[in-house]
């Protein structure tokens, strides 16, 4: 226990923040059911599907993301002709509203806002029918790094090769938060978010347009259901047959998103989305906050040891002659609170000699 204390001044303490990034690749083989669907877990509530990196019953399996879908009360899918063969209408609307109130918030009248295509909460084109990909914190850490997210999604006219027979899965689009490193939005209650754009190379032109949103701190990608519409498919043919959980299939034609979102269950919708994912990639962010304490030992300070064996009969044991300077070795730095209670201890890698002829500054860093 220390017997001599030195007060740290404000100039002796510096706070810093460091961001560490890690690349996270998720291949389509993980999410498409390659492992006999053992790494894709469905639940009795049927509200979403979870994807794991290994069979989910394995003790080494890690949850990586959830997939679900929904549409707004303002969507044409919530009523009219689309409701003839609709299933889980209430659940799909509830999921949309739940995600929207967390990620978009409420307007001045207390109504839940719809997702907006370009981040313009007042006016603008709304995303009223969407798919949700909710990444686990294990992957995103503190947030997804802006400008690094990309998703390759099959949307072509060929059916995905679910059965492993080598059949083509058609063309895919790359969905990315282009330009988000310098251009993003902060008007969400869940933090910062950017716009997702698709980039499809065709025989004649390159198409780039808004297809969703990515919420960086929340780790949620919101994809417009229009990604399965004909404007993204192979020009000419738009008969996209997708396999469902029950062994049946669903044709995604010009109104593909409407057919899928209304007549398919949420589990089937998740399977369609999972099986059309080619690759996902982004950099996560770990924010490391630090307090750095500069513990300064001036020439006339800390030249004596608190070790009881340092003295014998009031004589310093490390002296050879009576007129020698006192010598001490610094091995430990203790940080104390206002009431002299020990809060943190830092150990030096080796003892440092301290005499009245030298001064030392020990840099102590606390990370949290």
Q: In words, what does this structure look like?
A:
The chain is mostly beta strands and 368 residues long. The protein has two domains: 18-286, no CATH class; 298-367, no CATH class. Helices cover 11% and strands 40% of the residues. Strands 1, 2, 3, 4, 7, 8, 9, 10, 11, 12, 13, 14, 17 and 22 form a 14-stranded antiparallel β-sheet that branches. It has a two-stranded antiparallel ribbon with strand order 5-6. Strands 15-16 form a two-stranded antiparallel sheet.
Number of domains: 2
Using DSSP, what is the number of strands?
22
Poorly predicted sequence stretches spanning 5 or more consecutive residues: 158-169, 201-207, 230-255
- Proportion of helical residues: 10-25%
Kindly state the mean pLDDT as a whole number?
A: 81
The shape is elongated
- State Rg: 30 Å
SS class: mainly beta
| Terminal CA distance | 25 Å
**Main sheet specs:** 14 strands, antiparallel
**Strand-and-helix sequence, N→C?**
EHEEEHEEEHEEEEEEEEEHHEEEEEE
Q: Count of DSSP helices?
A: 5
The fraction of residues in strands falls at 35-45%
Q: What is the fold's blueprint, element by element?
A:
Layout: E1 13-27, H1 28-31, E2 40-42, E3 49-52, E4 63-71, H2 89-103, E5 115-116, E6 126-127, E7 129-135, H3 137-140, E8 143-144, E9 150-154, E10 172-176, E11 185-188, E12 191-201, E13 206-215, E14 220-224, E15 240-243, E16 249-252, H4 256-263, H5 266-275, E17 277-297, E18 311-312, E19 315-316, E20 328-336, E21 342-354, E22 360-367
């Amino acid at each position: 226990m220390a017997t001599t204390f030195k007060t740290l001044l404000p100039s002796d303490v510096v706070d810093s923040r460091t961001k560490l990034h890690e690349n996270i690749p998720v291949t389509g083989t993980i999410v498409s059911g390659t492992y006999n669907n053992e790494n894709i877990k469905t639940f009795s509530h049927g509200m979403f599907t979870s994807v794991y990196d290994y069979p989910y019953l394995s003790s080494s399996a890690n949850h990586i993301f959830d997939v679900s879908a929904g549409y707004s009360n303002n969507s044409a899918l919530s009523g009219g002709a689309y409701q003839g063969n609709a299933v889980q209408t209430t659940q799909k609307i509830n999921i949309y509203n739940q995600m929207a109130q967390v990620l978009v918030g409420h307007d001045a009248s207390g109504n839940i806002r719809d997702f907006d295509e370009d981040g313009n909460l007042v006016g603008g084109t709304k995303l009223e029918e969407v798919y949700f990909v909710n990444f686990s914190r294990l992957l995103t850490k503190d947030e997804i790094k802006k400008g690094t997210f990309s998703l390759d999604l099959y949307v072509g006219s060929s059916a995905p090769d679910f059965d492993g027979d080598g059949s083509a899965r058609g063309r895919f689009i790359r969905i990315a938060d282009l330009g988000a490193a310098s251009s993003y939005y902060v008007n969400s209650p869940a933090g910062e978010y950017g716009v997702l754009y698709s980039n499809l190379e065709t025989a004649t032109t390159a198409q780039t347009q808004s297809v969703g949103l990515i919420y960086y701190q929340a780790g949620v990608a919101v994809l417009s259901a229009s990604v399965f519409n004909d404007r993204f498919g192979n020009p000419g043919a738009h008969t996209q047959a997708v396999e469902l959980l029950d062994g049946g299939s669903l044709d995604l034609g010009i109104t593909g998103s409407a057919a899928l979102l209304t007549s398919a269950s949420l589990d089937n919708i998740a399977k369609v989305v999972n099986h059309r994912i080619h690759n996902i990639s982004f950099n996560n962010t770990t924010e490391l906050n630090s307090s750095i304490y500069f513990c300064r030992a001036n020439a006339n300070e800390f030249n004596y040891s608190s070790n009881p064996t340092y003295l014998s009969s009031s004589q310093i044991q490390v002296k050879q002659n009576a007129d020698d300077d006192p010598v001490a070795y610094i091995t430990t730095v203790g940080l104390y609170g206002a009431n002299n209670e020990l809060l943190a201890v830092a150990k030096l890698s080796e003892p440092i000699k301290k005499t009245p002829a030298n001064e030392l500054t020990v840099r102590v860093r606390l990370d949290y």
